[in-house]
Amino acid sequence: MKPIITHTKIHQIIKNTKPIFDPMKIAIFFGGPSREREISFAGGRTVYDNLDKSLFTPIPIFVDSNRNFILLDWNFIYKGTIRDFYPPIQDVPDSPNQFQVYIESLGALEEDQLTQIISRVGKKIEPKDFSQYFDFAFLSLHGSFGEDGQIQALLESLSLPYSGSGIRASSIGMDKAFQKKMMAGGNFECPEVMVIPKKQWEFQGARHFFERAIQTIGFPIVIRPANQGSSIGVRIINEEEGFKSFEEAVQAAFFFQTITKKQWNELNSKDKIDFIRTLSDIREGIGFPLSIEDEIIYHPEALLSHINQHFSISTESIELKGHLSEARVILEEFIDGQEFSCIVIQRENQQAIALPPTEIIKGNEVFDYRSKYLAGLSRKETPIRLPIDRIEAIRAECVRLFNYLEFDVYARIDGFIKKDGTIFLNDPNTTSGMLPSSFFFHQAAEIGLNPSQFLTYI
């Protein structure tokens, strides 16, 4: 395939943007309060490592779960996960079962406690002082307070430039339910869709929505949260799995979970600890804090004790509700086709252009969090294994959606193409993952750009 952007073009850009005096100070925002904070953390490290230091000075700004901005000491960037350094080990309560926790599991903190915790890893900075530390914000944040327009609004209120789309486009890119309405209005091919508001689910019950889903969508049914990343909380329910699996999948997409006494008693001590550890994982479980009726539980050890005590005196099931929950869940028709992801970028003249789309070849039906980010569970083929005319049709449709939603700078657009050539675009993202093997860098490499060159271009 003919390169879209050549090395010569990149070198011209670098030459034209080389600073006269000091390198431009680029704040890399990463972490955040969302369920994708670990991917954001790893992506921020990639950007930090690959930013051209002759042009830019990277400034690592870690956003914690409580939305504090921390000028992070650089050595913590190389920790494996956020929980390996924050909260610092000396501030973490004893855990006989070695549960790792995020700072929200420490509960409500006094101001001096929080100041001490932050001082062990860096320096807290206030938005009003941002301009003292950096010239430009590179956003590696995902999900809430990252892709939904909130951080963009904050930076715009401070007249600070940032990477990616603006407030409105970001909020549309995050809200998958609203996306569907917008795309239908733009004559994009859309599967049958049904939206379940949380209050209606709790009031009308699972059976009501199960029957509606069969009539509206039919099997298989794709179930996903409306405001999470494309890979979190996604499940496909087939006809043979029936009502119970449907109910469990929707509950999981709301980040609710029911535990019965029978289920709990069937677990041995080790299995109970493993169950709580999985439940604690914000990528796959409910996470903390969570509620049981009116009681808020912050720590995995407290939850383990609560469940053991409850079932020692009661046979009633326990209903867990994560505070990182969803207001709406989306049910979609399953699309049988080749799955792809395509990065769209803008040139200096604002013209959007799509990079060669990547086919996602996977072992599981769903391109979920594990298969997306763990090596060996899926394979990427660039460009997608199709004739040139169909590849160009995908690229053109991705550009059309990019322009229609008024995205800026770059975006990642996922979709499917059926055997008859019909293209379904199902998940426009205003911020792509920034891991070394992510679509963002994978497709840039296909046109001859290494990560440093592509970041300079962005």
Topology, element by element:
Elements (H helix, E strand, L loop, with lengths): L6 H11 L6 E8 L5 H14 L5 E8 L5 E4 L38 H9 L2 E4 L4 H4 L2 E4 L10 H8 L9 H8 L1 H10 L7 E5 H7 L1 H11 L4 E5 L9 E3 L4 H12 L2 E4 L1 H5 L3 H12 L9 E3 L2 E3 L2 H14 L4 E5 L5 E6 L4 E9 L5 E3 L3 E5 L6 H5 L4 E4 L6 H17 L5 E8 L5 E7 L9 H8 L4 H7 L1
Parallel strand pairs: 1-2, 1-5
Antiparallel strand pairs: 2-3, 3-4, 6-13, 7-8, 7-13, 9-12, 10-11, 10-12, 14-15, 14-16, 14-18, 16-17, 18-19
Helix pairs in contact: 12-13
Structural class: alpha+beta
* Helix content percent band: 25-40%
Distance between the termini: 22 Å
Number of helices: 17
Low confidence ranges = 367-375
Query: Averaging pLDDT over every residue, what do you get?
Result: 90
| Biggest sheet details | 6 strands, antiparallel
Q: What global shape is seen? A: globular
Whole-number radius of gyration?
A: 23 Å
Strand elements, count: 19
Residue share in β-strands: 15-25%
